[in-house]
Every structure is written in structure tokens, then in C-alpha cells.
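Lecture notes, unit on protein representations.

Consider one protein chain, 344 amino acids long.
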Amino acid sequence: MLKISIVGGSGYGGGELLRLLLGHPEVEVCQVTSRSHLGEYVYQVHPNLRKRTQLTFCDPAQLEPVDLLYLALPHGEAQQKIEEYAALAPRIIDLSADFRLKDAAAYAQWYSHAHAAPAWLGKFVYGLPELHRVEMKDARYISGVGCNATAANLALLPLVQAGLIEKDAPVLIEIKVGSSESGAAGNAGSLHAERANVIRTFSPFGHRHTAEVLQESKLSRVSLTMTSVDLVRGALATAHAQVREGVALKDLWKAYRAAAAQNPFMRVVKESRGIYRVPEPKILAGSNYADIGFDLDESSGHVVSMCAIDNLMKGAAGSAVQCMNLMLGWEETCGLEFSGLHPC
């Protein structure tokens, strides 16, 4: 059994990660840290884990060496102590934004402060398996992914992979998000995120996750907007782009089917009948699947691509476990087989 510990386990991301690891057949969770809940049973913060574990939150200073360390700290904290964490474990997977960007200048631009450990940026593989599966097999350090960036990148993946869109044309991506985004990483946000479910917010420009989409898609003109909706879990990205001249609907079908065939958690949802004819995030709650759909106006070349995910799973903890499976040479889907619920 691989020995694992979680640093920062009281936020939504840490709790979801713990839920997955407790059911994973290849790992043993040794310690979970939280200064704000020191000594409490983890199920007192994550009540869904009652009778699943008797672990209590420990002080980060009491961490012992393990085989793999998960970091689920608030953004900005992991980079301050990355040398200490690396001394405790030969492998690290970080759920925060600290090591997602490869360029220190880009990090400073999007996060408004210099990176505390810029030499480490190049050591981390970006943590979206659908884009970096091969590199993960030899990786020691893997970053987290932004949930909105994940929905956007997977919406674009079939189009970019098949070279179907005009790279210099603007790409506009509108993302509907649930309230749990505000508590996805670290200790803060759980209570506030629950209350935020009744508050509508709109982020028109400059969201930090845009940097990840620019980095991973290699597109030059991408704009993300976020709108919160009456949903706890989930993100739905709707991308608008321009296809190259001569691209037809049949070309899109080929590209999307190829993407789904290459990636075990990507599914094409484009139905002419049935309950859900396009991707719907609420039926993905608790699952690691990403449902993708599309349509094309062949007369204008305007393509619409959609991707629905559970932001705490495919957009955070689920992808982190998928990365671990690839890193250790296990079956990629191990511990992630839950298909979601219907009705929900």
C-alpha cells in the first residue's frame, strides 16, 4: 500500500480527495492536517466520511515522511514551503494554483505577486491527464488544475487537437459555476460557499484561470467569463470559436469521437432525443467524467463547444487521483469509477 498524507484537508478539495483515497485499493492515508481543526475527527468537518475513517486532523509540523504528499492548501501557501514538503515525500501532487503556470512572469501577471519558488515551476507537470498523460508516467511533481480552466480546456481539446479552429480568431468561453468553487482548495470558504449559493456573481474579464487555457491550448486570443448559478457542484463551459474554412459537421464528429476514445473520462453528449441532450453538470456530481458536446453553423463557421464537469472532481480532486494513478503506473480509472447519480 502506498502511504499518503494530505496537507490542508479541511476544505472542499481536501475532503473530496480524502473521500476518494479512502476508497482507493492501492493507498493508505496516514495523516491529514488542519491547524483550524486540530485534533478534531475529519468526519466532523466532512460528515459524509462518518464511519469511513477515524483519522483526526494533525498539525502540519507533525507530518511524517510518506510515499506521496497531496497539498490542498489555499493558493500561495505551497510555494512558501515546497522545499520542506519535497523533503517529506519523493512525489507531490498540489491542488492549488501555485505550480500550474510554467512562466514566472505570467504567474506574477495573473496572480499580482512574484512567485516565491520560481525554480520549481518547471519541475511540475500540469495536472490534466488528457493533455499530459505521457509526461505524468515519469513525473515526480504534478500541479493542480483550475476547475474553470479544466472545463474550458476540455471543451477546446477536440477542436485544438484536430486543428479545426482558426488560431488567431477570438475564442470566447462562458462558464456557469456552482457555489463550491469558493471552497475548493484550502481551509477557507466552506460555510461561505454554502451561503454563496443564493448570490449571483458575474466575472466578465481577467479570470486567473484564463492563463491556464492560454498556456495549454496555445491559442492567443482567449477570454473567459464566469457566472454563478443555483448549483453547489458543477461547471459548464460553453466555448465559441471560428472553424477553418471548409470544416464541416462531419469533421467535428470525427474529432470529438476521437477525443472520447482516447480519454476514459471524456464522453460525447450530442443527442436528438432523451432527457439530457447536451452536457449537464448536475448528473456528473461526484464523478470524474467530463461530458462534451458541440454544434456548428456551417454557413458562418461558428462552432459552439460545451463541457460539463463536477468542479470538485474532474476540476480538482478527481483529476489529482487520476494523475496519481498515471504516476504510479496503475489503471488510470482506479478509484474513480463512480458514474454520478440520476435522478439528481
